[in-house]
Specification:
disordered N terminus, 47% helix, 9 helices, two-stranded parallel ribbon, alpha/beta, two-stranded antiparallel ribbon
Length: 207
């Protein structure tokens, strides 16, 4: 039995118990050992250019299909590079949209002490961005639109990705409660399968 407590975060006060949740046993045995949950991670380290075997690609596609999702893998170097550059342009654009910038910039963490004390947000170490660059992105996002600074930051951003041999694309029904739950189950299993294969997700998004 789990107890859920609600705390008034506007005015300090006592915790109020408002729900009791019971944990039922799993409907089926997990194919993944518990220790894989400690192995799984995202990584912003540069890719080393290693290739994924054709057999594993087939396996990942089959896993997605079993969960009503699709997995597609881009292997063509020219296409991959064009998608990466489009992603960089999208990032630079989004950080200059006031509402988006206000939302994400308040989560920037500039030091180990700040990250540890708040225990949330986007730690500059995990983002692999120097604190000064992160501060500039917060206080002066237009530097990503100025021709000279834009080119420099774009070069740095691209270099941080390393040699990219594959881009994986996951797609499927998501935008309703039931579908989102099933998509979440798939994503966790997909993530664990990658971890079992000693592969790690580099956070990447576009549009």
């Amino acid at each position: 039995m789990f107890f859920v407590f609600l705390k008034n975060i506007v005015q300090p006060g006592p915790l109020i118990r408002f729900a009791e949740l019971a944990l039922d046993g799993p409907s089926e045995a997990s194919p993944y050992p518990d220790q894989l949950f400690q192995v799984r991670k995202t990584s912003r380290l540069p890719s080393n250019g290693g290739r994924i075997s054709a057999d594993l690609t087939v396996q990942l596609k089959a896993l997605a299909s079993r969960h009503g999702q699709n997995y597609h893998q881009l292997d063509d170097s020219i296409l991959i590079e064009s998608v990466i550059l489009e992603n960089i342009r999208a990032v630079f654009h989004d950080l200059n949209v006031p509402a988006y910038h206000r939302e994400i910039a308040r989560w920037f963490r500039y030091s180990a002490q700040e990250a540890q004390s708040k225990a949330d947000g986007l730690d500059h170490r995990c983002m692999r961005v120097p604190p000064i660059q992160l501060r500039l992105m917060r206080r002066l996002p237009e530097i990503m639109r100025w021709p000279l600074t834009r080119s420099i930051i774009q070069w740095i951003y691209r270099k941080q990705l390393g040699e990219v041999s594959h881009l994986g694309v996951i797609g499927g029904d998501f935008f309703n409660d039931s579908a989102a739950i099933h998509a979440g189950v798939f994503l966790m299993r997909f993530w664990l399968e990658l971890s079992r294969q000693k592969l790690f997700i580099h956070p990447f998004g576009i549009w």
